[in-house]
């Protein structure tokens, strides 16, 4: 499925004055970061950082990857294909496995990978990483036993499982200073710890917790009512391919526009992971409203540039 072809023609005006204007300057070294030889157009490979089974972003089965991140990556790949002179279909997404969240971000910084999608925005990360337009929004919450409301007072003396080096772990450490923390190396280990009873509380990204609750802790409550922090979720790109940020923003912008314009293929692809019939359970109106805000804000920011 070519998500990019689904975008409304009206996006051309938006991208010409909006998306490009909000981007950082494109890299001038076409060899890529850290002396890397060959960019996406030369190698035919878009090296994408992935963490296995971090729903709703990544779902891996028998070496095949799906998930909301791959809906976005497929759109970016199609945009890159359309930029090649011969319209080649040779560009493929090459998953880059990582040991931890920090390992993945370091691969982007070093140029060992080209892109990571599904990364929560933080101001600290923004200092060394280049973010695309967001395609989701999330927050930091907990899965907790029934009766616990997830407030700092209710978590005094409790042990909370978190994934090491994640934005959620940092937020909870600052917000719930009278709790103890048990660190897990990977999301898979953290979910196993909750399921097996190693920890009663698991903190993390709201979308991840919602998508994982049914299979891990169906009786747990998602708390507190209001997240400890909210953040946008997008892609981060390396300086490995000239204008990769521009291509990524154009692809994401077109995908969001297609959803807002009620394109059935795009709605089906996105809804599978976060829509009303998914474990996340967001309504189409909620998704469409967020996408509209992203697009409108991008256009508005460009007017003063």
Overview of the molecule:
With 305 residues, this protein is of the alpha/beta class. The protein has 2 domains: 3-136 and 232-298, Periplasmic binding protein-like II (D-Maltodextrin-Binding Protein, domain 2, 3-Layer(aba) Sandwich), CATH 3.40.190.10; 139-223, D-Maltodextrin-Binding Protein, domain 2, CATH 3.40.190.10. Helix content is 40%, strand content 20%. The protein is built from 11 helices and 12 strands. Strands 1, 4, 5, 6, 7, 8, 9, 10, 11 and 12 form a 10-stranded mixed β-sheet that branches. Helix 3 (68-83) packs across helix 9 and helix 9 crosses helix 11. The two termini are 35 Å apart. The model is unreliable at 1-35 and 300-305 (pLDDT under 50).
CATH 2nd-level architecture of the largest domain: 3-Layer(aba) Sandwich
Q: What kind of sheet is the major sheet?
A: 10 strands, mixed
Mean pLDDT across the residues is 86
Number of domains: 2
Radius of gyration: 19 Å
Structural class assignment: alpha/beta
Q: If helices are DSSP runs of H or I spanning 4 or more residues, what is the number of helices?
A: 11
**Gap between N and C termini, in Å?**
35 Å
Q: Could you name the CATH homologous superfamily of the largest domain? A: Periplasmic binding protein-like II
């Amino acid at each position: 499925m070519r998500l990019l072809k689904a975008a409304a023609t009206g996006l051309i005006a938006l991208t010409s004055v909006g998306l490009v204007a909000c981007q950082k300057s494109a890299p001038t070294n076409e060899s890529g970061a850290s002396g890397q030889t060959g960019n996406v157009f030369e190698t035919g490979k878009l090296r994408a950082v992935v963490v296995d089974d971090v729903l709703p972003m990544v779902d891996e089965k028998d070496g095949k990857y799906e998930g909301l991140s791959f809906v976005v990556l497929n759109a970016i790949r199609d945009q890159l294909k359309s930029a090649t002179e011969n319209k080649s279909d040779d560009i493929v997404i090459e998953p880059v496995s990582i040991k931890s969240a920090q390992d993945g971000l370091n691969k982007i910084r070093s140029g060992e990978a080209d892109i990571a999608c599904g990364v929560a925005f933080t101001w600290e990360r923004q200092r060394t990483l280049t973010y695309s337009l967001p395609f989701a929004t999330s927050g930091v919450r907990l899965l907790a036993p029934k009766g616990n409301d997830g407030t700092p007072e209710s978590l005094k003396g409790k042990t909370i499982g978190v994934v090491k080096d994640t934005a959620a772990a940092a937020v909870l450490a600052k917000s719930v200073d009278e709790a103890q923390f048990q660190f897990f190396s990977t999301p898979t280990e953290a979910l196993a710890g909750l399921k097996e009873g190693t920890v009663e509380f698991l903190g993390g990204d709201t979308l991840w917790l919602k998508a994982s609750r049914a299979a891990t802790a169906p009786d747990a409550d998602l708390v507190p009512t209001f997240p400890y922090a909210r953040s946008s979720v997008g892609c981060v790109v390396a300086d490995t391919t000239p204008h990769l940020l521009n291509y990524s923003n154009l692809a994401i912008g077109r995908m969001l526009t297609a959803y807002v314009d009620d394109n059935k293929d795009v709605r089906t692809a996105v809804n599978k992971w976060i829509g009303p019939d998914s474990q996340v359970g967001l309504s189409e109106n909620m998704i469409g409203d967020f996408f509209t805000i992203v697009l409108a804000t991008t256009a508005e920011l460009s007017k003063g540039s």
